[in-house]
Amino acid sequence: MQQVTESTSRTGNFFKLLKEAVTGQEKEYTSGSIDKAIFLLAVPMVLEMLMESTFALVDIFFVGRLGKAAVASVGLTESVLMIVYSIAMGLSMAATAVVARRTGEKDPDGAAHSAMQAIYIMTGISILVSIAGFFFADKILALMGASADVVSAGHNYARIMLTGNIVIMLLFLINGIFRGAGNATIAMRSLIIANVLNIILCPALIYGFGPIPALGLDGAAIGTTIGRSVGVLYQLYHLFIKKSGIHIAARHLGFDPEIVKRTVKIASGGTAQYLIGSASWIFLVRIISVFGEEARRLYDRYPHDRFYHVARLGTGQCGCYTGGAKSRCTAAGPGREVSLAGCLL
C-alpha cells in the first residue's frame, strides 16, 4: 500500500513539474535542485524543436496536391535553409551562453546588452543571405539538382523563403536569448503562435479562401513567413516592452565591438559543427537528385533530423546558466547531469 502511495505521489509530482515547465514563470536556477532546473529548461526546448520541425512538414503536406515539382521545390529549399538553421542555431547557442552567464552573475544590464549585440550580428548575416536568395534563387535550386520544371515552379518559393530568412534567424536567436535568461517558455509560445498561423494561412493562401486568391506554391512561402514573423513580433514585445526575464532598453542599444567579437568566437565552434552536418545533408540531397524527381519526392517527405539537436540545446543551457554562479560546485554540477541526460536522450 505504501509503495502504491509513493508511486502515485511521484507521478503527481512529475505532472506538476511538467505543468510548471510548460506554463512557465521566472525562476532562480543557480540554486536548488539541478535535476529540476534541467527538466524545467529542457521540456520547453524539446517542444520548441518539435514545433520548429513542423514548418516544412506542413508546407509539404499542403503543397502535395500541387504536383511533384511543388513538393520537390519545398524539399530542395528546405535543404538549402539548413545552412540558415545552422548559422542561427550556432549563434543562438552563443547568445544563450553569454546571456546565461550574465544572468547567473546577477547582471541584467550585461545580459541585455549582450543580447542586443547578438541581434546585430544575426541581422547582418541575414541581410547577406537575403541578397543571395533574392538574386540567385533559381540558380541555387539548379545547383541542388532541380530540373527545369522544378526551377520554374519553385524559384519564387525559394526566393521568398531565402529573402525572408531574417525571421527564421531571429526566431532561433531570440528564443536562445530567453532560454539564457531562464524563460524557456517564451520560446515555446512564440513557436506555437507561428505554427498555428502557418497551419491556418498555408491552405488559405495556397488554394484560396473567400476573397483571398489562390497563390499556389508562393502562398505556402508567404504563409510560413507571415507565421514566423508574428512569432518574432511576439518575442520582440516581450524582449523590448514587457519584462520577461530579460529586458532591452535604450541604454542597451549601443554597438559594442568587443562583445560582438567574443560572441562570434563562442558561436564559431557550434556553427561550424552544424554547418558540417548541413553540408552532409545537402550533399546527400544532391546525390538523391540524380535518381529523379520521384526518389527525391519520397525523401523530402521523410521528417528532418532536427529532433536530434534536442539533447544538446535543451539541456546544455542549464550548465551555461549556472556557470555564472560564483561557486564551482554550482557550476560543475550541471555538467555531469547534462552529460548523462544528453546520452539518455
Can you characterise this structure?
The structure is a single chain. This protein is mostly helical and 345 residues long. It has one domain (42-315). Helices cover 80% and strands 0% of the residues. It has helices spanning 2-23, 34-52, 54-63, 68-104, 108-143, 148-163, 165-180, 184-207, 217-241, 257-289, 293-300, 310-323, 328-344. Helix 3 (54-63) packs antiparallel against helix 9, helix 4 (68-104) packs parallel to helix 7 (165-180) and helix 8 runs antiparallel to helix 9. It is globular.
Brief summary:
This protein has 13 helices and no strands. The protein has 345 residues and is an all-alpha fold. Helix 4 runs antiparallel to helix 10, helix 4 packs parallel to helix 11 and helix 6 packs parallel to helix 9.
Defining key terms:
single chain
List the helices and strands and how they pair.
Blueprint: H1 2-23, H2 34-52, H3 54-63, H4 68-104, H5 108-143, H6 148-163, H7 165-180, H8 184-207, H9 217-241, H10 257-289, H11 293-300, H12 310-323, H13 328-344
Helix pairs in contact: 1-2, 2-8, 2-12, 3-4, 3-8, 3-9, 4-5, 4-6, 4-7, 4-10, 4-11, 4-12, 5-6, 5-7, 5-10, 6-9, 7-8, 7-9, 8-9, 12-13
Strand content: under 5%
Radius of gyration: 21 Å
Q: In DSSP terms, counting alpha (H) and pi (I) runs of 4 or more, how many helices?
A: 13
Q: Any low-confidence stretches, pLDDT <50, length ≥5?
A: 327-332
User: Kindly, what is the distance between the CA atoms of the first and last residues, rounded to a whole number of angstroms?
Assistant: 33 Å
Count of distinct structural domains: 1
Largest beta-sheet details: none
Classification by helices and strands: mainly alpha
- Shape descriptor reads globular
Number of extended strands: 0
Helix and strand succession? Answer: HHHHHHHHHHHHH
Helix content: over 70%
Average per-residue pLDDT, rounded, comes to: 79
